[in-house]
Amino acid sequence: MIKSRTVAKLVFAVILLLTFSPVTGCTLNHDFDKDLKRITKPYRFSVVKWELNAFGEGIRETLCDRQKTIDDKISKVTEYFSAVEEIKRLESEIESVKAGNRQGDMDSLEAELNRLQQQNSEVADTVENILETQIKEALSQQGIFNPITGSKAVLPPVNFKLERPPHMLVVSPRDRIESMKKVALLQDMSPEDMEIIEGRVDELDVSSLVVRLGGYSTYPSFVTDKAGLRFVIETAVHEWLHQYLVFKPLGFRYMLDTTGVCRDYEVATMNETLVGMVSEEIGAIVYENNYAREEANNARPETTESGFDFNQEMREIRRAVDEYLAQGEIEQAEEFMEQKRQFLATRGYHIRKLNQAYFAFYGTYADSPTSISPIGVEMKKLRDQSASLKEFLETAASMSSRRDLAESIN
């Protein structure tokens, strides 16, 4: 018999595909849009193609569905993520050997890397299902269920794939920090590819950056297979919340912003900040309920902090850049950011490119060090005055403007 949860996943995938795939955004002008499409065409990631493929896999899963008994779920998940850490270590060691920075048996290293990658590939579906169930349980504990009818069934069904997400090209004007365009790019891209795209886009007199994403809210969502357990849990919740909020005023307005239909950077910041705060709390619940004891037993000694405050430094850089741009000193702002990028590298923080597009992308998260938006503080006030996480989410989700947020905390 086909499980209702699997059917619900398929239905929701169809809804998202039919509802949002045809939406196209307006851009600054026709010539800019045409030039950007020409530059990015060889590298574009097709969301529609991927969704159709995922839909086909979902049908096969439904037709071949069987109840599976999974023994020792916690160990199954922790073993997977231990292998992830070992895979990253091996990849780094192999790169060092190739570069001539150290000696090593390449055949042995690559054989072990292939073995671990194959091992994780075989259990990825199981790990996804375990985490999806645990996230659903945490959401249910908080009374977060259905954004449409309010019935006690988590909707959309939590559904994600442990897979490398697409890259994202972010475009900002040079004279101010604002996300004016985002384009999903291929999952596999070299640093050289990124530099080529950015160089050509920058010739259009804008600031651009190709970002490696940790997650992407298609359906099922992408969640990177290169990260640790806590990051994956929070990211899976994060992308689910984006899907949940589409059916609420705030999320719908955010969708209009991301597609370019109706730009509103403050709504985008509100949405991302809300999602970040709620996913952090839900992620902590999932972790504490299932993995805190297991991870504590395998915890590595903490490294001593250098005393350098990266968050404070980034906020000061952002304020200085805004001042330069407000005075029309664009070249000075760009020179300043490059100098600061090099300075951060001496402190152990290696940022490939620090420019207006960098701050436009990461600054959308008002609780991040790259943002100086007061929205983060306002959201935290709203959370403090909310009786529960559910109340906080529902209150913020019902908003459609920055004014609504200001009024709610007054």
Would you mind describing this structure in some detail?
- By secondary structure, the protein is mainly α.
- Helices cover 60% and strands 7% of the residues.
- It is built from 16 helices and 6 strands.
- It has helices at 4-20, 30-40, 47-63, 73-98, 106-141, 191-202, 229-245, 249-258, 265-290, 292-297, 310-326, 330-346, 356-362, 375-384, 389-397, 402-408; strands at residues 160-162, 167-173, 181-185, 206-212, 215-216, 221-223.
- The protein has a 3-stranded mixed β-sheet with strand order 1-6-5. Strands 3-2-4 form a 3-stranded antiparallel β-sheet.
- The longest helix is centred in the first third of the chain and has 36 residues, at 106-141.
- The radius of gyration is 22 Å and the shape is globular.
- The chain starts with a helix and ends with a helix.
- The model is unreliable at 18-27 (pLDDT under 50).
The largest sheet, given as strand count, sense and whether it forms a barrel, is: 3 strands, mixed
Please report the number of helical segments.
Answer: 16
Global morphology: globular
**Mean of all residue-level pLDDT scores:** 86
Distance between the termini: 53 Å
As a percent range, the share of helical residues equals 55-70%
| Rg, Cα atoms, Å | 22 Å
